[in-house]
């Protein structure tokens, strides 16, 4: 069951508890009240009967005295739902911080009272929270025990980890088209039968990861050196180091290991 963040009028408990996710830089610190009433507040939704708020902590200020946690470290300490709401807080606060002026006429913007947007009072331009869709795909070839997955080591990976191929979707491109293009660009292989698998918000800083499974069609692996250090076909019983559980890449690989993709 995915996290569904509801508006406050959908809550029927009648006694909302409030939780304030203070965003310190890009780290989070949760309290039962805002540390300063003058700081920007952004309503995030309700979760398990709690009204969740994001608090925009001004730069150079730290009400947590160093105790705020970055989102990577917060994963595993908080529940999955709490982690997702914290990611939402960071993304919305950062959006508000970076859209204080109109991108067209440079007039200071105003937060809309009725929708999640920053509006220019002079020219009317609206700025909505930014999401960058990125696809991630597990490519397989063969069947049964002989089936193999194409895993690659990106140039920016820490350690010797191998993962699914991923990349941002270009304007004007379908998700399926992005899968075909990215796989061809990164490892020189053509794929077919692209199927959607699932998604994951990825607040680093504002991606939405869209997971796919694709079937190998043709071509030999030729790595694009600016993006990929190494890529190979791996059987389920001979996997390299794979990503940690926080990522949709790991969830996709785990599902393949269970024969669920
Ligand atoms: Zn404007």
Using the alpha-carbon principal axes, give the shape: globular
Provide the low-confidence segments as ranges.
none
Order of helices and strands: EEEEEHHEEEEEEHEEEH
Helix content: 10-25%
Radius of gyration: 21 Å
| CATH class placement of the largest domain | Alpha Beta
Q: So, CATH architecture of the largest domain?
A: Alpha-Beta Complex
The CATH homologous superfamily of the largest domain is called Nucleoside Triphosphate Pyrophosphohydrolase
- Provide the list of bound ligands, each named once: zinc ion
- Tally the beta strands: 14
Structural class computed from helices and strand pairing = alpha+beta
Q: Outline the biggest β-sheet.
A: 6 strands, mixed
How much of the residues is beta strand, in percent? 25-35%
What is the straight-line distance between the termini? 18 Å
| CATH topology description of the largest domain | Nucleoside Triphosphate Pyrophosphohydrolase
Average pLDDT rating: 92
Per DSSP, the total helix count is 4
Count of domain modules: 2
């Amino acid at each position: 069951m995915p996290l569904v963040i509801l508006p406050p009028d959908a809550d029927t408990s009648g006694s909302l508890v409030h939780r304030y996710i203070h965003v310190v830089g890009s780290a989070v610190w949760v309290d039962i009240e805002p540390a300063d009433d003058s700081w920007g507040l952004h309503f995030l939704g309700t979760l398990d009967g709690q009204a969740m708020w994001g608090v925009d902590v001004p730069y150079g200020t730290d009400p947590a005295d160093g105790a705020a946690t970055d989102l990577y470290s917060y994963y595993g300490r908080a529940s999955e739902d709490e982690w997702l709401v914290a990611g939402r807080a960071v993304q919305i606060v950062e959006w508000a911080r970076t859209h204080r002026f109109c991108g067209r006429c440079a007039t200071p913007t105003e937060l809309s009272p009725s929708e999640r947007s920053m509006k220019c009072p002079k020219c009317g331009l609206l700025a909505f929270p930014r999401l960058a869709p990125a696809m991630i795909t597990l490519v397989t070839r063969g069947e049964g025990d002989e089936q193999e997955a194409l895993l690659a080591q990106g140039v920016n990976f820490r350690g010797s980890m191998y993962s699914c191929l991923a990349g941002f979707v270009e304007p004007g491109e379908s998700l399926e088209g992005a899968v075909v293009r990215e796989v061809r660009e990164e490892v020189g292989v053509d794929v077919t039968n692209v199927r959607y698998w699932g998604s994951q918000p990825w607040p680093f800083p504002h991606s939405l990861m869209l997971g796919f499974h694709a079937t190998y069609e043709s071509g030999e692996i030729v790595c694009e050196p600016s993006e990929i250090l190494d890529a190979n076909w791996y059987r389920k019983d001979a996997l390299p180091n794979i990503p940690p559980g926080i990522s949709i890449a790991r969830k996709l690989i785990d599902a393949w290991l269970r024969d669920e993709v």
